[in-house]
Amino acid sequence: MGRPEISVIIPNRNYSEFIGQCIESAINQTYKGDYEIIVCDDNSTDDSIKVIRKYPQVRLLIKRDGKPSVPATLNCLLKKAQGKYITQLQSDDFWDPNFLEVMIKTIREKNVKGVYCDQRAVNKFGKPTGEFTNYPSANSREQLHGLSLYSPCGVVGSCYLIAKKVFDDVGGYNEKCVYGEDREWSMKATKYYYLYHIKEILKNKRVHPRQMGRMAQGVGGQWSDLHLSEFKKWLKEREKDEASN
Questions:
Q1: Cα(163)–Cα(100) distance, integer angstroms
Q2: What are the pLDDT digits (tens) for 53-72?
Q3: pLDDT band with cut points at 50, 70 and 90 for residue 135
Q4: Dihedral, CA atoms, 50, 48, 160, 111, nearest 10 degrees?
Q5: Are strands 114-122 and 160-163 parallel, antiparallel or unpaired?
């Protein structure tokens, strides 16, 4: 079996009530190309593992030990991903059936390294709340990077499909960023790569108490300051390495 076109990476911790719908949305895609589904469970104490094992379409289930950490779990998944493109799906969220088809088609048509789409909010039961997240668009890499630096929630979130080459180049998620790790990563990626915005809602973001609590901490002032500080440290080290080579 050759290399898959896409790796779907799913981090999970104690979302047994949601992860079944999440995995099924990844399985039931209209995209007919080759893609793999990888799940990393981050020390769950509920029935998550039992639920995940119901789906033979999950190519790999990783059980992570150590202190619970979303960025560390994502980095574990990135190390195992074999696809040419990477997309992340949080275990309490789910996709529309045409998510992968639209995303990969746009990458090919626009000849870009990555794309990101918009999302709708749904309640605990998966029903739309009427609220949406419309991420900002940019006409250039420079403009997108500026938005990444100063948008409180970043510009990409977890609604992306991005070439693995980008992750190989700029690195994975910063494990110091306990909250909002995707915002700090988007600062690094857009410093060197242009990502195209698909102005279409293709993902469902579940709004519930645990998710809202983490998001509120992630966009708070101290964490926003940390994201920018960590990005500047990373950039300084990268430029130093480039100058010495």
A1: 13
A2: 999 999 999 999 888 899 99
A3: confident
A4: -20
A5: antiparallel
Residues in the chain: 245
User: In angstroms, rounded to a whole number, what is the distance separating the alpha carbons of residues 15 and 124?
Assistant: 12
72, 66 Cβ separation under 8 angstroms: yes
The answer to whether domain 6-244 has CATH 3.90.550.10 is yes
Domain coordinates in residue numbering, the chain:
6-244
Determine the Cα–Cα distance for residues 132 and 154; give it in Å rounded to an integer.
15
> What single letter denotes the amino acid at residue 27?
I
Nearest to 201 by CA among 116, 107, 114: 116
Q: How far apart are the first and last CA of the chain?
A: 37
Question: Other CB atoms closer than 10 Å to residue 245's CB: what's the count?
Answer: 5
pLDDT tens digits, one per residue of 12-57: 999 999 999 999 999 999 999 999 999 999 999 999 999 999 999 9
Tell me the C-alpha to C-alpha distance, in Å, between residue 173 and each of 2, 70, 82, 181.
27, 9, 17, 6
| pLDDT-based confidence at residue 192 (cuts at 50, 70, 90) | very high
- Cβ-contact 13, 41 below 8 angstroms: yes
